[in-house]
């Protein structure tokens, strides 16, 4: 059975820079490249990216889509594309409740390699588990990662064979066959 490795990266990226995103890309390249799997690892990259974009935020939050915010989000999008990851949280699903303004936003996100993404049953926020006096909403990922079931093919156990009986049956089956020389 093939052993599959899962690399889970939890990120906090400050809103004024892209240091965490840049560092992650550097580490991934150091580990052996990019493109969705590094060292045969499936990747889940999640956390607070502090980036806003129309691809994931609610359309009504137009005040978040200023040029500087979109440029910062584009850097994250480019990193996700380089790693060939896919967004698992549906667009418009808020992950942050701004306590001062009462607004809901989406600075948190979940990206994963394609094979894992195809096994996701549900990726959503969980309001019931929202801790008191916090602004970020908990996220749950439910995936169908059932292991492959391997059926072992039965093979003859030659050491246990009754060779005398085998020779007798074989000799009887060979009687009357023509022998051709090559």
Kindly describe this structure.
By secondary structure, the chain is α+β, with helices and mostly antiparallel strands. The protein has one domain (5-143): Deoxyribonuclease I, Chain A (4-Layer Sandwich). It has 4 helices and 8 strands. It has helices at 19-30, 67-82, 114-118, 163-174; strands at residues 5-12, 41-48, 85-87, 96-97, 104-105, 108-113, 120-125, 139-143. The chain has a 4-stranded mixed β-sheet with strand order 1-2-6-3. A two-stranded antiparallel ribbon has the order 4-5. A two-stranded antiparallel sheet has the order 7-8. It starts with a strand and ends in an 8-residue tail after the last helix. The model has no long low-confidence stretch (mean pLDDT 83).
List descriptors:
single chain; 182 residues; alpha+beta; Deoxyribonuclease I, Chain A; four-stranded mixed β-sheet; two-stranded antiparallel ribbon; 22% strand; elongated
Annotation field: number of helices: 4
N-to-C order of helices and strands: EHEHEEEEHEEH
- Judging by the overall fold, what is the CATH architecture? 4-Layer Sandwich
CATH topology: Deoxyribonuclease I, Chain A
Protein topology:
Layout lengths: L4 E8 L6 H12 L10 E8 L18 H16 L2 E3 L8 E2 L6 E2 L2 E6 H5 L1 E6 L13 E5 L19 H12 L8
Parallel strand pairs: 1-2
Antiparallel strand pairs: 2-6, 3-6, 4-5, 7-8
State the gist of this model:
With 182 residues, this protein is an alpha+beta fold. Helix content is 25%, strand content 22%. The mean pLDDT is 83.
């Amino acid at each position: 059975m093939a052993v599959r490795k899962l690399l889970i990266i939890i990120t906090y990226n400050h809103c004024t820079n892209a240091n965490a995103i840049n560092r992650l890309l550097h580490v991934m390249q150091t580990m052996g490249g990019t493109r969705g799997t590094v060292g045969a690892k499936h990747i889940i990259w999640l956390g607070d990216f502090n980036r806003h974009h129309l691809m994931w935020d609610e359309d009504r939050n137009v005040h978040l889509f200023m040029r500087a915010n979109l440029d910062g989000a584009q850097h994250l999008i480019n990193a996700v594309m380089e790693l060939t990851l896919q967004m698992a949280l549906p667009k418009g699903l808020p992950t942050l409740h701004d306590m001062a303004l009462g607004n809901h936003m989406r600075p948190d996100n979940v990206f994963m390699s394609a094979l894992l993404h195809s096994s996701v049953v549900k990726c959503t926020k969980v309001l019931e588990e929202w801790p008191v006096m916090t602004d970020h909403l908990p996220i749950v990922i439910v995936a169908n990662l059932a292991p492959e079931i391997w059926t072992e093919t039965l093979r003859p156990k030659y050491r246990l064979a009754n060779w005398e009986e085998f020779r007798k049956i074989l000799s009887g089956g060979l009687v009357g066959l023509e022998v051709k020389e090559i």
